[in-house]
Amino acid sequence: MNHLISNTKIRFFLIPIIIILLFIQCDDDDTPVFPYVRFNITLSISNDLLNMNIGEYVFVSGYNYGLGGLIIYRKDYSEYLAFDRACTHEAKKSCIVEDDIELTGLLVECSCCGSKYWVINTEDFGAVHEGPARHSLMQYRTYLSLNSLIVYND
């Protein structure tokens, strides 16, 4: 009888512990930590974006344009993609990406940590090429309206 009570007590104690352990989640190191910046800007296709061609990108800086400014990429005739210039490893206004001196038009590089991101095609645009950064550049929503591109995060 003591043996039966002892097993029951152990089960009574272990089952809740096992259930709790199943629901505990460890911190996920792959979760990007990028500050939320709310903004809504309108850019002129001819003035701000310089009538860029398909496959080209431009840097756009300004007050409250994302965290570190924007990279606007023209995907096709009627679609543009917008990315934050702030590195996802540092995520600061002062740590922004610039054209890679050796591979201009292919990569952009973070001025702080040296992470490099692809800027060559639609599928990989903004993806990490090398460096301590593990997450792609932050992408924002875009909407094309006549001769204006609206970029926003809400």
Secondary structure topology:
Elements: H1 2-23, E1 39-44, E2 57-60, E3 70-76, E4 79-84, E5 97-99, E6 107-110, E7 116-118, E8 128-130, E9 139-145, E10 148-153
Please outline what is shown here.
The protein has 154 residues and is of the alpha+beta class. The chain has 1 helix and 10 strands.
Describe the structure.
This protein has 154 residues and is an alpha+beta fold. It has a single domain, classed as Rieske [2Fe-2S] iron-sulphur domain (Rieske Iron-sulfur Protein, 3-layer Sandwich), CATH 2.102.10. It contains one helix and ten strands, in the order αββββββββββ. The strands form two sheets. The protein has a six-stranded antiparallel sheet with strand order 1-10-9-4-3-2, with no helix packed on it. The termini are far apart. The relative contact order is 0.18.
Question: Which key features would you list for this structure?
Answer:
154 residues; alpha+beta; Rieske Iron-sulfur Protein; 6-stranded antiparallel beta sheet; 4-stranded antiparallel beta sheet; 1 helix
